[in-house]
Specification:
Blueprint: H1 2-15, H2 36-47, H3 53-64, H4 67-70, E1 74-77, H5 79-85, H6 97-109, E2 113-115, E3 124-128, H7 135-147
Antiparallel strand pairs: 1-3, 2-3
Helix pairs in contact: 3-6
């Protein structure tokens, strides 16, 4: 997947050299709209199957308000802010602060997010990683693709 994205970047640079899309995938840089469908595909195929519903909801929220919003993988957010935004599927009420912390801790332990600094009054700065940057996702993808049937070229 990374090779395809890098090839697309090379072709776009040939068309418009001022775009300067030569930065490799996963580096701290702004992401292009061309990459977004591929990144979403990776999230759905390689990350989401490894998460619970809460964990997936948190990751999608963080992704939406960072990479998908402005191409920046950094996002400052607070636990109370997340608690108010992400609602429980049981009864539609807000989830507990403990559930928020447990979910963030799990996402950090699997490498989906990383704290980038100490909290301040606006929250804590996190870096949101894409599936290509998460070792667990790369392993899951390798296992999944090894067991998937190969497309029949004769059709």
């Amino acid at each position: 997947m990374k090779n395809h994205i890098n090839r697309i970047r090379e072709l776009l640079n040939e068309i418009d050299p001022e775009m300067n899309l030569s930065t490799p995938v996963g580096a701290d840089r702004n992401f292009s709209a061309v990459e977004l469908p591929l990144i979403i595909q990776e999230i759905v195929d390689d990350l989401q199957p490894l998460l619970t519903a809460y964990q997936a909801a948190f990751y999608w929220y963080l992704f939406r308000h960072s990479i998908a919003k402005n191409g920046n993988p950094l996002l400052r957010m607070s636990t109370p802010g997340l608690k108010a935004i992400i609602r429980s599927s049981r009864g539609g009420g807000a989830i507990s602060p403990q559930q928020v912390q447990e979910t963030l801790t799990y996402l950090q332990s699997m490498g989906a997010i990383r704290k980038e600094g100490e909290p301040n009054r606006d929250g804590t700065l996190y870096r949101i990683f894409m599936p290509d940057e998460i070792e667990t996702c790369r392993k899951f993808r390798a296992e999944r693709t090894a067991t998937e049937p190969k497309p029949d070229a004769s059709k």
